[in-house]
Design a protein that fits this description.
Layout: H1 11-25, H2 30-37, H3 41-49, H4 56-65, H5 70-74
Length: 76
């Protein structure tokens, strides 16, 4: 029996969408978010296009700076 392949959203994209949602909730500019992630605004645009280069270090930096857990971010 052939299983249907479901298209799924990669984990990096899911996390990136949650970070962008958090940014929206806290009314932050791209410059402020870039500061939290320790990257450039150009990198944010690259993540918007394709989040495959979003690293655990970047996510961890964001979580530490904002005193969040991954669970809190993902359930926001």
């Amino acid at each position: 029996m052939a299983m249907k392949t479901k298209k799924r959203i990669p984990l990096q994209k899911t996390i990136w969408c949650k970070i962008r949602y958090w940014q929206l909730l806290h009314d932050l500019t791209d410059d402020e978010l870039a500061m939290y992630l320790n990257c450039s605004t150009r990198t944010l645009q690259n993540y918007d296009h394709d989040a495959k280069n979003l690293t655990l270090k970047t996510v961890d930096t964001f979580l530490c700076v904002n005193e969040l857990t991954l669970e809190e971010l993902m359930t926001a």
